[in-house]
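Why predict the complex rather than its parts? Because the way molecules touch one another can change local conformation, and only a joint prediction can capture that. The input here totals 530 residues.
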Amino acid sequence: MRVLVTGGAGYVGSFTVRRLLAAGHDVVVVDNLSTGRREAVQRCRLHVVDILDIAGMGSVFEDFRPEAVIHFAALKSSEESLRDISTYFSVNLTGTQNVLTLCARTGVERFVFSSSCAVYGTPQICPVDESAPVRPESPYGETKYLCERMIASYAQATGMHYANLRYFNAAGAADDASLGEYAGSTATQLLPVAIRATLGLAPTLRIFGNDYPTTDGTALRDYIHVEDLAEAHVRVLEGLQEGSESGPVNLGRGRPVSVRELIDVLRDVSGKETPVFMAPRRPGDPGLSWAEPGLALRRFGWRAERALDHIVRTAWNWHTSAPASLE
Amino acid sequence: MHLYLLRHAEDRSGEHDPHQDRLTERGRRQAQAAAHWLAKRRPTELRTSVLPRARQTADIVAAHTGLVAREDPRLNEIVWASFEGELLPHPRENRLYPPPPGAESWHVFMTRVATCMSELCHQASEDQRIVLVTHSGFFDAVNELLCGGASRVELLVAHAGITHWQYRPGDSGGAWLLHQHNVTFAPQSLLDHEYMSAAELSA
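Output of the joint prediction:
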């Protein structure tokens, strides 16, 4: 299948591209390389184009005539979106609308969207399933939900099959440490930030909130290995070929893990203590968030296979072997 | 996992004499009727709000079921009062803005309820039948958390009314099944288990 991947040089995008190629698909990547890395995309064509550049994007669509699009390209920080609402609405909404316009114009049949558990917001009774009422708490979460609605409207008009994949917390790296996450000094993702502190590249790991009503007082999240996520994209894309019903699909392990538990596993993997500093809760941070992943299994035969220690071990191996990934 | 939400029985309003029962005589009979009905469901666990009207209701359920009532302050009613006598809007109309000192916003209250319910789900098993002795706000919060709709729907819950939810993870028909809402009994009809609506009871 001819698959166009926007944001394919990013973290989840680059793993998905690898899987698509391994499955025999013909892949073209579009990425503006604002956070994506050229070296993360090998063995397929990369066009350095911004999704806001509809003319540039149009050329790629006309030349490649994709049968399917996987749309990752977006800004992805809840925290940053609170400070820069306009940019988030512009890139995430206008960018997605551009991609959808070109899909409609060129007859794309399948569309897989990189959505987020941020659409659920808080409070929620966990595990959350796809039918839970949405309550996004940040402009980022709002844009993801609005994109989902926009995709549904375009799909209704064009007959395109689609899936809005709501990821929980992507983490981990390739088993052979050949690919992983690039988490710069402003990154907020817990695992790379914890690894940075463990390696002495930051004075401490700040834990936001130890007074949540959870077993050890720290927040609960659902961490999922990036390889499992990538596998899910391929399964879903191929499953949509068979004409399954379109809509949102959770991608998580369905297992809540506290911040403290994650740090304990990191200590076991690294043999080092992570210096921590307890900070107050951050506004907008959900105290607990984990998925009910049953729909992905029932509809696409997918479930996360990789355990928490595998997530932590591969992330540790990646960041220690590629120091640039933390710069 | 089956959850039986039981609202506390009728209590004495206003100033309270600490040497006197918090529940009225009618409230005690309501609690006994509810406890009798619950005991037939063979509950496996009993948790209660720490507020006296709930705690005393739970004690009656404990006596009928042989269970030990475990206190959980997350089952308490929303704290919604102004100590300065300020007239407050309904808490569901004041969802995110800072509440008066010492009070909880509806958002904070919902977060407390969600945490409590999520913890139960995390530890859930098929054969669990848990009684939660709580307050009317908790019923509304659970309904809103599961069904959405903000404050469009308010639930009527009688004193000692019971709402029966079932959590069935992975069920394609819906993870949550509402079996019954606001089940109440006339205290004198303990033997025939006659259902009565809240309107009939209050008449």
